[in-house]
Amino acid sequence: MAPEILNGQIAYTREAVLQTDIYSASLVLWEIFSRYELSKSPYDEYKPPYFEHVKENPTMKEMCSAVCTRGFRPQFASHTDPDMAELISTIKDGWEEDGAVRLTAQCIETRLAEIINKDEFKTSQETSFSSNNNVKCIKLSTGNSNLAYEQ
């Protein structure tokens, strides 16, 4: 659940709700990725997100403390393949504390298309992924501020 929902500070506008969906989609991508077995790297036994920070079946107060106050996010396995760095970066960019600077769905689609279309991800069958080639996503970090742009 997105930090702004957990701490009760969401403005229920269309844009704010879309940004909470991006946070949730990033959690789903983490769930998929955490179960993905690379040929050289076995995946770990499943552990739920935040397992090292909260007890099983945590309360909303415990989750708010872990996600909002302490800023925890699910962890990636230590043996993660370096070729997956761009995917990990995309997932983490969807977990930004401030919903206003999270990636948009279109930006995530563009990044995933770029990742999938790289040579190391192509198989003997041609990969097909629709994408708007006019959209480029840029993530800038400046000190304590993070800015996400679409062009």
UniProtKB/TrEMBL annotation:
Keywords annotated in UniProt: ATP-binding, Kinase, Membrane, Nucleotide-binding, Receptor, Serine/threonine-protein kinase, Signal, Transferase, Transmembrane, Transmembrane helix
Location(s) in or outside the cell: Membrane
Highest taxon above the source species: Eukaryota
Membrane topology, as annotated: Single-pass type I membrane protein
E.C. number: 2.7.11.30
GO biological process: cellular response to growth factor stimulus
Classification via InterPro entries: Kinase-like_dom_sf (IPR011009), Prot_kinase_dom (IPR000719), TGFB_receptor (IPR000333)
Domain (Protein kinase) ranges: 1-116
GO cellular component, one term: plasma membrane
Signal peptide segment: none
Coiled coil (residue ranges): none
GO molecular function: ATP binding; transmembrane receptor protein serine/threonine kinase activity
UniProt-listed PANTHER family: RECEPTOR PROTEIN SERINE_THREONINE KINASE, TRANSFORMING GROWTH FACTOR-BETA RECEPTOR TYPE I AND II
Family of this protein: Belongs to the protein kinase superfamily. TKL Ser/Thr protein kinase family. TGFB receptor subfamily.
Record-given protein name: receptor protein serine/threonine kinase
Protein's organism: Bugula neritina (Brown bryozoan)
